[in-house]
Amino acid sequence: MPYFDSKSRTVFSPQCDKLDPFYKMLEQYHKVIGGSNLFDDLVETYEYLDFVLREEKNNELVTTD
Asked: What's this model's pTM, rounded to 2 decimal places?
C-alpha cells in the first residue's frame, strides 16, 4: 500500500479508488502545507471519506450475498 510521510503524519493511499485524485492532491501539496491545520483537516476528511466509502462497499457485498 503506497503512502507518504508528511510533517505531522503518515498518509496512506485510499482503499477506495474514487479517492485517488484526493490522495494525489494531498501528496502533491504536503511539502507546502503539510503540518498546517488546513492540511490536517484535509487528511482527516480524506480518511473519513475512505472509511465511509469502504463501509458502503462492504455493506453492498454483504447484502448481495
From this structure: 0.87
Q: In sequence order, what DSSP letters do the residues of 3-39 get, joined into one string?
A: EEE-SS-EEEPPSSGGGHHHHHHHHHHHHHHTTSHHH
> Could you list the pLDDT tens digit for every one of the 65 residues in the chain?
799 999 878 999 999 999 999 999 999 999 999 999 999 999 999 999 999 999 998 888 877 65
Give the CA count within 13 Å in the CB-facing half-sphere of 59.
6
Per the structure block, which three cell numbers stand in for 22? 484526493
C-alpha span between 20 and 8 (Å, rounded): 21
Phi-psi region of 64 (alpha: psi -120 to 50; beta: other; left: phi over 0): alpha
C-alpha separations of 30 from 15, 42, 64 in Å: 20, 11, 39
